[in-house]
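#onboarding

Welcome to the new folks! Below is a worked example of what a typical request in this channel looks like: someone posts a single protein sequence, and someone else replies with the predicted structure as tokens. Don't worry about understanding the tokens yet, we'll cover that in week two.

Example request:
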Amino acid sequence: MASKKQQKRRDKSMRHGLGRHAFEYVTLDEEGNEVEVEDAPAEKPARASGKKGSTQQRSRRQPKVPQPPSVKRIGKKAALFIPVILLLTLSQKNVAMEARIIQALLFAVMFVAIMWLSDHLVYKMYVKRQARAKEAPSGKPGSGRPGKD
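Example response:
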């Protein structure tokens, strides 16, 4: 059942003769008076193929080009996260101080190694994708995926 607010809104639209999904199209003449339009505005034509629109949307947005891994960039990332790691590992109460320090250093080293590895893999995949795009002739269906041709 419709709420009172919904009932009032429906009654108001019915009083004005609009009904459900009915719209009035009007234009303004030279004097500023509203004049009803006989024909409804034409709808946009449907697209010929669904894939065409998706490729156009992808071509508008420029993807971020990954940079090769560098010590400077990884150092900046590490400067953000390693203090948090150190704070969390050194704040343990029931562990000896030497064990906390060793644990903090191991976590920091592993974190830096994983950051470098992830940057390296992302860049390597980007380079392979670019090489594959240069080799494959454009316009051929399935040219972007090896093994699917």
